[in-house]
Amino acid sequence: MNRIVLRVFAATLMAALATHAVAAERGKVTNLPIPRFVSLKAEEGNVRRGPSLSHRIDWVFKRRNMPLKVTGEHGHWRRVQDRDGQGGWVHYSLLSGARHVIVENDLTPLRVKPGKEAAVNAYAEAGVVARLGTCDLDWCRIAANGKRGWVRKGVLWGVSPEEIRD
């Protein structure tokens, strides 16, 4: 009898925690998922210590379309991190929902279709910033420098492992 009560309690607790976790995964300003990926739409973007113009600039991102992970929101400001985990606060007007990724591995094959046996279209060097297209659980279609192809999701930074894109 006690086991049944304990199991019901545990199931209820797990459901409550799951509901709370879902609620905690939304930004208080935009109601968009946190974390989420965006791209820098400007050539340069000041990264500040806090969410206002009065906060010190710690550094400047200088790569258009660089993917960033949004980890927080405050008014018109978004707390972001780059692929090295460095971050700070950026004004939302410098960010875009047009998604880009960074290729992590050197000589990553861009394949004609998803699958490790598919023909190779081109190779991408590590550090290439590419436009993100369709993704399934294992593969994403990217485009960079006039070349397109499918790559393993695991070699990209700027897309979540469980993310599926049509």
- Kindly, what is the distance between the CA atoms of the first and last residues, rounded to a whole number of angstroms? 49 Å
By CATH's scheme, which homologous superfamily of the largest domain applies?
SH3 Domains
Reported by name, the CATH topology of the largest domain is SH3 type barrels
Q: What kind of assembly state do the chains in view correspond to?
A: single chain
What structural class do helix, strand and pairing data support?
A: mainly beta
Q: What is the gyration radius calculated from CA atoms?
A: 20 Å
Task: Give a short account of the largest sheet.
Answer: 5 strands, antiparallel
**What is the percent of helical residues?**
10-25%
Architecture blueprint of SSEs:
Blueprint: H1 2-24, E1 36-40, E2 45-48, E3 57-61, E4 67-74, E5 77-81, E6 87-91, E7 95-96, E8 100-103, E9 108-111, E10 120-124, E11 129-135, E12 139-144, E13 147-152, E14 156-157
Antiparallel strand pairs: 1-4, 1-7, 2-3, 4-5, 5-6, 8-11, 8-14, 9-10, 11-12, 12-13
Provide key terms for this protein:
SH3 type barrels; mainly beta; 2 domains; 14% helix; 166 residues; five-stranded antiparallel beta sheet; 14 strands; 41% strand; disordered N terminus
